[in-house]
Structures are given as C-alpha cells and as structure tokens.
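2024-03-11 09:14:02 INFO worker-7 job=invfold-0412 stage=load source=structure_tokens
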C-alpha cells in the first residue's frame, strides 16, 4: 500500500502523544499487506520491523517501544524501560511515567484502550478482548497507573478500533460467561445467538473503575478491510493469516 501511515487520535487525550493505527502505510505484502506489526502473522520479519519503525515515527519519533506478550489476561505491568523481545512479560496492559517510552498494544478485533492522567504524567495502554475485559484488565491498568501517582478522577481513556456489535455474533455458551447485569451489551440475533457490544462493555468497565471520561471512537474493524485488520474477517474468508494493528501512547522527553 502506498498510503501514508494513518494515525487516529482522540480529542479526550489532548496533547498526549498517542495514536490508533490501522493497516495503511505499511511495508507488508500479501494477505497482511499494509502496516502489520504482528510477529505471529507469518509475515516477513524485516517488514514487521519496518512497520514498527514507521508506527513509532508517526506518533512519537525517537522513543523506545514497549510491548508485552499478550495472552488475554487481566495482568498489567509498569514499564521502566522496554524489554528485549524475547523477555517481554506475559500481560495485556502497561503503564509508565517515564518520558521517552512508547507503550504499544496490538489488536485485530479486540479493543485497544489508551489512557492518560496529564497532570500526573502517567499513561497506560490495554489490550481488551472480551476475556481480558471480563477478567479485569482495564481495572488493572487503572490500578497500575494509580500506583505511579495518577488519580482515577483525572484519568481519561479512549477506546480505539475494535469489532463492532453489528459484526460480533456470539452464541449462548459465550453469553453464559456474563451475568444478567451485563444483558444490555447483548442484542438478540438468530436463534441461540447474540450480538455483543465489546466497546460498550469496555466503556462500562472503565466507568465503574472511577475514571474521569471515556471517548468511544466507534470504529468497527470487521467491515473495513482497507483500513483495519480483523481476525474474524480473515477467519470468515478462510485466509491463512491475519495482520495486527498497533495503538501507541507515550510521554515526550
């Protein structure tokens, strides 16, 4: 793709360097063409490295990227400096108060969430699929930020491109993981199925964590193949691999 890197920003995060990136502007080719940043996509390693360089340059040039080995958990970690690729902790959220560190989470339908307390100089990022959100990953990253001096009543968050409710069909077995208190996030579908509102559910978990505000960008990854990678779309199409996009937030030096 010849397009420049697209950086989607949230007004709620103000002047904090951040961006939700899609697939435009990357070096990868084939079924994961574009800005694929996932090492597990069967992509050329140099293309992935180049895509990550482009992503950093588009959001906060000259910084060091910190990521984790994402496992759909409720675990959050504090970042002092990025880890070597082979030594990344198994977790799904990160927080830092260190200028020059750029936090990154990769997604392909799950909800990327970026958070900041501007006054405290603390930022966070979370990979919130349904399992992680249900287990408490969003509350965990807010707690990790609070441990660095952030105050819940000052933290703002933005939920980036994720699979939308109209695209996210789930079955009764999935629905059984949730309580009646969560019924508003499930719209009836065909018999034995529901349409799940992941973005709305993540928003509710953040609000219950006591933060100041949440910006829902309302961008559905599934139908827009030119703009976003989507695990579910690739699966439905029978494609052999799927790309991952990255969401980034950091503090200027």
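2024-03-11 09:14:09 INFO worker-7 stage=emit residues=253
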């Amino acid at each position: 793709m010849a397009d420049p890197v697209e950086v989607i920003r949230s007004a709620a995060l103000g002047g904090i360097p951040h961006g939700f990136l899609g697939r435009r502007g990357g070096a990868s080719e084939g079924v994961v063409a574009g800005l694929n940043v996932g090492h597990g996509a069967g992509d050329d390693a140099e293309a992935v490295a180049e895509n990550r360089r482009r992503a950093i340059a588009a959001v906060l040039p000259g910084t060091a990227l910190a990521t984790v080995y994402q496992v759909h958990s409720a675990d959050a970690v504090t970042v002092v400096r990025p880890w070597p690729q082979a030594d990344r902790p198994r977790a799904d959220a990160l927080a830092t108060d260190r200028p020059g560190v750029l936090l990154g989470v990769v997604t392909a339908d799950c909800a990327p969430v970026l958070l900041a307390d501007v006054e405290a100089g603390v930022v966070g990022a979370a990979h919130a699929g349904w399992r992680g959100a249900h287990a408490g990953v969003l509350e965990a990253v807010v707690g990790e930020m609070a441990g660095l001096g952030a105050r819940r009543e000052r933290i703002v968050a933005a939920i980036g491109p994720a699979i939308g409710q109209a695209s996210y069909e789930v079955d009764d077995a999935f629905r059984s993981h949730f309580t009646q208190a969560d019924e508003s996030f499930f719209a009836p579908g065909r018999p034995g199925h529901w349409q799940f509102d992941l973005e709305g559910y993540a928003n509710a978990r953040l609000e219950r964590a006591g933060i100041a505000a949440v910006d829902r960008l309302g961008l559905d990854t599934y139908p827009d193949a030119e703009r976003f990678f989507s695990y579910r779309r690739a699966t439905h199409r029978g494609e052999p691999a799927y790309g991952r996009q990255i969401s980034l937030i950091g503090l200027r030096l």
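2024-03-11 09:14:09 INFO worker-7 stage=report msg="Helices lie at 45-59, 130-135, 137-147, 172-175, 198-208, 231-237."
2024-03-11 09:14:10 INFO worker-7 job finished
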